[in-house]
Amino acid sequence: MNINQEQLTIFKTVMTLGSFSAAARALGKVPSAISMSIANLEVDLNLQLFERVGREPKPTPQALILFEKTQALLIEMNQWKQHAYALSEGLESSLNIVVVSELLHTQWTEYIALLEQQFPALQINIISAPQEDALKMLFNQSVQLAFMFEREVLENSEQFVEVKREQLLPVISNQHPLAEFDQVSFEQIRQHRQIVVASRDKSIKPELLFSKDYWRTDNHHSASMIILENLAWGVLPFQMFEENPLLKEKLKVLKLSDFTPKFEYYVDLVWSRESQLGAAARFLINHIRNQRISVK
Fold first, then answer.
1. What are the angstrom distances between the C-alpha of 200 and each of 95, 106, 130, 134?
2. Exposed, middle or buried by CB within 10 Å (0-12, 13-18, 19+), for 217?
3. Backbone angles phi, psi at 6, to 5 degrees
4. Which fold has domain 5-89?
5. What does the pLDDT look like over 202-219, one tens digit per residue?
6. Which of 37-46, 61-70, 158-167, 239-248 has the lowest mean pLDDT?
7. CA–CA gap between residue 251 and residue 241 (Å, rounded)
């Protein structure tokens, strides 16, 4: 059996338009070529696809069954060819992206949707991790791209483009002793337990750590639950706080009297200079660069 895409396309067109002559006009062929192709397909399949009675061929029950599968198969074949062409042009076989835990509630998915539109056959793998672990993944090349907060010190192999600005909020349960105060001092927050989102590697000191007594978690979902249980205060993304009615109702934003911590951060798309980036990764980097130029 040697069935090709042209035969399937002719079969689909005949089934859709209802006649050999209409299919010939649509495909730019003579009717005899359409008739010959269908006859060869019937021989290859050892099936009668059309009853040739009257002016127009009538599909057999077998043809009706195969028609639905033919449409799906042609779509897959076209996707396969597009993917093969994209790979020949440098598209990566898959794209691994890490999103730091603090950013899971921001609008990062719009960039994934853009990649899907541009490269529909590309496999995209999304990973969540604390900032320190995300950097490790970049440098050991287990991921190609990372959405993360700005870093105070840049590694030599690190490249980035700024995406947007995000805000974090120091919050406490309404039932916590600190919630009684309009403002709290640095010494007050130091004396109360803090829940921090930090690397799974306990040798790495957490960022945004202020309290002497602290617990660690690797994501903001568990951090928010700890805070709601009145077990600690912590720092949560503004958007998470705004979009979750439970958090907004049961948590209070702490006002710090002694200092103004840097709770407003720029979000970067980061990659390693040592990685060989494929077409999809380069497309996203250039898209964000162009966005910044158009805003300016």
1. 24, 22, 8, 11
2. buried
3. -65, -40
4. Arc Repressor Mutant, subunit A (1.10.10)
5. 877 787 888 989 999 988
6. 239-248
7. 9
Domain ranges of the chain: 5-89, 94-164+265-295, 166-264
CATH classification code of 94-164+265-295: 3.40.190.10
Q: What distance, in Å, lies between the first and last C-alpha atoms of the chain?
A: 60
Span 164-206, pLDDT tens digits: 888 888 999 999 999 999 999 989 999 999 999 887 778 777 8
Q: Which fold has domain 166-264?
A: D-Maltodextrin-Binding Protein; domain 2 (3.40.190)
19-58 residues labelled b (16+ CB within 10 A) or e (exposed)? ebbbbbeebebeeeebbebbeebbeebeeebbeeeeeebe
Sign of the Cα torsion 108, 113, 114, 120 reads positive
DSSP 28: T
> Which parts of the chain are beta strand (E)?
50-51, 58-59, 94-100, 123-129, 145-149, 158-173, 194-197, 214-217, 233-237, 251-253, 264-272
User: Which single residue is written with the structure tokens 């790979």?
Assistant: 87
| φ/ψ (deg, to 5) at 196 | -120, 145
Residues whose CB falls within 8 Å of the CB of residue 53, separated by 6 or more in sequence, listed in order: none
pLDDT tens by residue, 61-75 = 998 998 988 888 887
